[in-house]
Amino acid sequence: MNLPLVSIIIPVYNSSAFLAATIQSAINQTWPNKEIIIVDDESTDNSLEIAKKFETDGITILSQKNLGASAARNHGLKKSKGKYIQFLDADDLLLPQKIALQVNVLEKNPNSVAIGPSIHFFNKEGHVSEIPKQNFFSEFNNPKDFVKILFGGTKDYPGTMVEIHSWLAPKTILDKIDPWNESLSVDDDGEYYLRVALASIQIIYVESAMVLYRKHSGQISLSSGIKNRKGLLSSVNSIEMKRKLLIDHFPNEQLANLLARSYWELAFLSYPKQKKLFELCSNRSKELNYQGKRFQGGKIGKLITKIFGWKIARRLQLLWY
Length: 321
Fold this sequence. Notes:
The protein contains twelve helices and ten strands. By secondary structure, it is an alpha/beta fold. The strands form three sheets. A five-stranded mixed β-sheet has the order 3-2-1-4-8, with helices on both faces. A three-stranded mixed β-sheet has the order 5-10-7. Helix 1 links the parallel strand 1 and strand 2. Helix 7 packs parallel to helix 8, helix 8 packs antiparallel against helix 9 and helix 11 packs across helix 12. It is globular and about 65 Å long.
């Protein structure tokens, strides 16, 4: 019996501190029929040299000009030959049976995609005792119900994220949609996987197919921070793309439940420095009848909001940080 090939695509930019462990986690996958495609995005550290130490049959090293994470993933995707595609960022880890568990499920469920739980840990901290996130996805496999959970569009579940490497998708589904949007530097994965989810017939949660998600600050990565204008603009563009996509799948009332809070959060982050972005997101939240909290932050800020309003609280928050 021929086992289906899985392509593991790893975009890399200045990830020398973590790259070897990430590549090793891909090599250690118990699924035997796999190829690993590493795409260096013109790193300025020794990431490329580290990657080349692993180059052998089944591990391909590619280089491109500094075009960003999405472009690197698209480059790897074009070179891939697998029936299934696994994206893996250069500082994250797969547990050994992750791919095998998901392939076994997907082979029995054509036109579906698989996700699994993630363990979040800070760099230099252990992760063994951490509790996996997102196990509530096991209750839903309909793509539209899944999207509602993702955006916090239900009363019982908050909005959340699914890490890039939690997914495993058939190449046939990815071929139905446009490539990764290379204009986005933040929330490129959220926009892409929304399209993946809606192109599938079901989302299958595989509880034992765990991944490790590294959280850290002060490191250069492929994604720009949301705190700068580029990051905010990317986030706003991403949610605008999501809105246009979701309009075709959800009635107006459900669309408001899905997007109103996200628009307001971006409006809040844009205030007061990014006036045009603030006006766009604020107006969108009004159109969607956002009724939630205005201030995004801790107890002191909430207290100041009650007395002086959220705008004063936001300005003081920026001064503090």
